[in-house]
């Protein structure tokens, strides 16, 4: 699927699927997403990121890595 970066509302949604290597994304791969998310947030957009829950548990680590790269707290729905 092609990546689309056209934003047409006051929020954006990023869905992260397990990369082809199957080893999670890691800090280097998530850096560009952190930069995009920070830029969109600075424009006043709400940014939602969803990591696919893979069998090896990389989604949790990748979400924490992205949170750390952004340097902001993660909001959770209860």
Would you spell out the secondary-structure blueprint of this structure?
Elements: E1 11-16, H1 26-42, E2 46-51, H2 58-70
Parallel strand pairs: 1-2
Fold and architecture overview:
By secondary structure, this protein is of the alpha+beta class. It is built from two helices and two strands. Strands 1-2 form a two-stranded parallel sheet. Helix 1 packs across helix 2 (58-70). It starts with 10 loop residues before the first strand and ends in an 8-residue tail after the last helix.
Concise overview:
With 78 residues, this protein is of the alpha+beta class.
The SSE string, one letter per element, is EHEH
Number of helices: 2
What is the beta-strand fraction? 15-25%
* Mean pLDDT value: 83
Global geometry: globular
Which consecutive residue ranges, at least 5 long each, have pLDDT under 50? none
Distance between the termini: 32 Å
As a whole number of angstroms, the C-alpha radius of gyration is: 13 Å
Total strands:
2
- Share of helical residues: 25-40%
Largest sheet: 2 strands, parallel
Give the helix/strand class: alpha+beta
Strand arrangement in the largest pleated sheet: 1-2
